[in-house]
Amino acid sequence: MVETHNFAASHLHAITRQIFIGAGAPRHIADCVAGILVNANLSGHDSHGVLRIPQYLGWIADGSLQPAAEPSVVKETPNSLLVDGNHGFGHYASLQTIHMAIEKAKTGNVACANLVHMSHIGRLGEYAEAAVRAGCIGVITCGVGLGCTTPTRVVPFGGSVGKLDTNAIAIGVPTGDSKPFIADFATSVVAEGKVRVAQSKNLDLAEGCILDKHGNATVKPADFFDGGWLLPLGGHKGYALSLMTCLLGGLSPYLDLGVDGMSGAFMQIINVQAFTPLDSYGRGVRAFLDGMRRTPPAPGNDEVLVPGDLAHRRRAERLANGIELPETTYRHIQHAADQFNTPMSEVIVETGDVERYRAAS
Q1: pLDDT less than 50: residues of the chain
Q2: In terms of CB atoms within 10 Å, which of 22, 93, 147, 297 comes out highest?
Q3: Cβ neighbours of residue 354 under 8 Å, at least 6 residues apart?
Q4: Where in the chain are the domains?
């Protein structure tokens, strides 16, 4: 039995915000990043939640993440944006970028954005959800591929050395109710963060997820962190999708042909109203998805779900009952809090924090 520590979302948000303020982030950036991390935990994506705090602090310490950096628009047209994250928090830069793209789509029907020079941007579903709240369809990808430099985490199909990141894709579609369609997945069999979660709980992975540093199949998270690799999802098909995220992310003019690499985040926002009334579209989407849910389940399954259902359930449950952190994650956050003289008690929770998550319930 893994020991856990339970936190209300508002409490975990306050701790996270204060840690990042201590590390040099302005309050508005720290508050934004804290909200996105906690929302990942609430949605059941613990791999992209507060577990990441020590990793980000390490990047701040080595100078690769500038905690106070503001994104800047490098180039724009009525329907496109090129945004430089200036090596700041990717969460903050991505949220700013998606909101700018949404505004363009509201007037121009469709808008695309490319975001470069940012750190890890977290759970892509966060930005798909922002599009949905605006009555739009959102397509978000984030890709990193390096041809000849330091090996990354995912091997190309048939390869023995990592050349790709986990390169996620997210799609959000409005349904007209509180349960939007949100598909959000890595193009590796599992995201690197899922390996971190398994390690934090002292669990093995399923077979077919990772290789050790010698290229042998393994289920031990420690083998991955000792120089191992992730495998692409669905063999050659996931590999192709992973390459696609790099090609879309590489639309910026900052390509370094000397390292054969392409990387960046890509966002496309489609204003539903440009094609059909939003209300009727939502009703059609709901009816379609409900038809999927009514499919008789196969033996061994209780029900048929659609993307977004589990996250909606977990969010409701965790808002009501709190977020459970494994002992190892708790210790890492406690160490970070001590480093910046941040109390772990509820004394740091503000009224606004409580209201934020009460409104989300």
Answers
A1: none
A2: 93
A3: 10
A4: 1-68+308-361, 69-188+232-275, 193-228
